[in-house]
Amino acid sequence: MKKVILLAAAMGCGMQSVGAEETKMRAAGSKVIYIETTQTDEFDRREYEQDSRGRGYDYESHHRANRKLRKRVKQLELAVRQLQDTVFELQNAAPPAPAPKYSCLLSTHKGTFIGSGMSKLEAKGIVVQQCEANNPPYLCGIHNVTCEKNK
Predict the structure, then answer these.
(1) What phi, psi does 135 have (nearest 5°)?
(2) 83 found inside a domain
(3) In which domain, by residue range, is 115 found?
(4) Is the same domain home to 106 and 132?
(5) Looking at 68, 92, 116, which one is the last position of a domain?
(6) pTM score > 0.85 for this model?
(7) How far apart are CA 17 and CA 14, in angstroms?
(8) Does residue 110 lie within any of the structural domains?
């Protein structure tokens, strides 16, 4: 269902010409298709009539143009497919594991100070800052701080 919605949204930009160009970048081991949108000129009937009067009906040029358009549609379909796969993978990816959190404790004869942080060093720094805010620095040695990893 989600893939159909994305395809419908991609086809909804019919007012613009969309070109696909294969790039050398890779994401998760597969090629990435780069989609570039550009505004095209509208069909000019007068210019078409002048051109066809000058050269006549040219089946070969129409055949070449048709082949180019088919190739372009194939590239766009490939790009849409890759985008759908990427969106599907992102929606179904497992959330990242939370980073471990540390709690540290410093006990002095003037009080106990507790700090927590995402790293051991951060938690120790918070405890020492709290201690030094209320006490002389010689009471707040970092070597007296004990830390534990939260579960």
Answers:
(1) -135, 165
(2) yes
(3) 102-149
(4) yes
(5) 92
(6) no
(7) 7
(8) yes
Question: For residue 105, which of 53, 146, 138 has the smallest C-alpha distance?
Answer: 146
Amino acid at site 27:
A
Domains: count for the chain: 2
**Range from 1-5, 21-25, 88-92 carrying the lowest mean pLDDT:** 1-5
Neighbours of 85 (CB within 10 A): 13
Say yes or no: 19 and 88 in one domain.
Answer: yes
Q: Strands of 66-138 (E only): list them.
A: 102-108, 111-117
**Beta strands 17-27 and 111-117, pairing class:** unpaired
Instruction: Read off the pLDDT of residues 48-105 as tens digits, 9 standing for 90 and up.
Output: 677 666 666 666 677 778 888 999 999 999 999 999 999 988 888 888 777 779 999 9
What CA–CA distance (Å, rounded) separates 49 from 46? 5
In a domain, 79, yes or no: yes
Q: How many CA atoms lie within 13 A of 22 on its CB side?
A: 8
